[in-house]
Amino acid sequence: MLFHSTRGNDNNKTFEEVLMQGLADDGGLFMPDSWPQVDLDHLKSLKSFIDVAKYIVPMYTDSSFSKDEVHEVLENTWHDFEEKDYLKIVDINKSLSVLELFHGPTAAFKDFGLQLAAAFFNKTLVDQNKTAIVFGATSGDTGSAAIDACKEFRAIKSFILIPDGNMSEIQRKQMTTVDKSNVFPILASGTFDDCQDVVKKGFKDRSFLKDSQYLLAVNSINWVRIIGQICYYFYAALKANEFSKPLNFSVPTGNFGNVFACYAASKMGMPLSKIIVAVNSNDILHRFFKDNDYSKNKVSETISPSMDISVASNFERLIYDLYLDRDSDKCSNLYSKFPTESIRLDEDIWKKSASLFLSYSIDDNSTFKCMKTYFENSGYIMDPHTAVAADAVTKLNDRLENNTIILATAHPAKFPNALEKAGINLTNVPKNLQKVLNKKEISFKLSPFDNSIFEFIKDNN
Ligand SMILES: *Cc1c(COP(=O)(O)O)cnc(C)c1O
To answer: With CB atoms counted within 10 Å of each terminal CB, which end of the chain scores lower, N or C?
Structure first.
């Protein structure tokens, strides 16, 4: 399986190239040349999450690694989960369940994708006898998951920019208490967008790198993260009903990575009824699905900070694959003018998604109410991101058939202020989070408005 860019000018790439490169050279996103097809009967015979991963992952990695090599990587990929099956499905009632994806070391679903990325980064670096810098900005959970996933690999140094903003104290502490000589949490006094600009500049400039050193992107446009997420959709559907009936998945989303993984699983043969695209008041995706209006607005801060975005990077993959039938010229043309010109598709093309996608935008008030209602009615405690997806199900209930699974993307203990405001008293805090609370914070304060971050990386490289 080879990969190509959604914009048509970076093609025939191997898995390893796509992994180490992140974004395509022409500014597009990498896509597999075709959708590999699963054998559902074979999947039904598999017992564990790792078994499913051993079946799915090699479909995308064969251009670079043998099956045996990949299986060996996967034996050691996912670690420090507090649930021995990695994920857990909790039934709310006969037709509604919650898929808990937050039992990993950083208590958010991002551990699934980033631990897979880190395992393959490390394999590649060791095979090639090279080193790498991980450089990224985070609005919440990406930074901690990337740091945790890479911290034991000596060939990788992580420099993560933490903006001023409304991430929770625990989210910040997860990055500043790691205390490893290859981890550099940088408090950058600016907004997330300011930090993102520095990262973009760094990927262009690269002068702080040593000879033949890699600069690695850990944001959700990296295809390897999507692969990790495809695995849990198959495993969840297998556990829920052995693929006997198509399910609905309600996904709390920002950058559309998690939704795209669900779509990818369905393209590979997973029975699927509807995907619910659940967003907070940063509603670019909802405006598109509802009104064919994909236009960039200012970011507003919400109680679900990991979904506070102005554009949804991974959405380009859906535009390309579903709406434009993989016409890279058309895709390139749309994105060359975006965001100056917003994206609006021809009406008949835009309608293509209606059979598969529903969407809803949930504001903070409704999110609080939803957290409360679930707690009072069923004793179930959810974090604000999960509540956005849960409330979208309530709002769209009339349009849903079959059983529905809500994706729980973060553990509620990560957001104590939101819980308190909703009047919910949480007693069980995961061990991985407890450990973080009392540790000393170590971080580096640097300005995102001059060269100091690049100087810092050079000095510590
Ligand atoms: C990152 C994140 C999301 C959004 O994920 P996307 O892949 O961007 O859709 C949702 N919830 C939590 C808790 C997250 O950390």
So the answer is: C
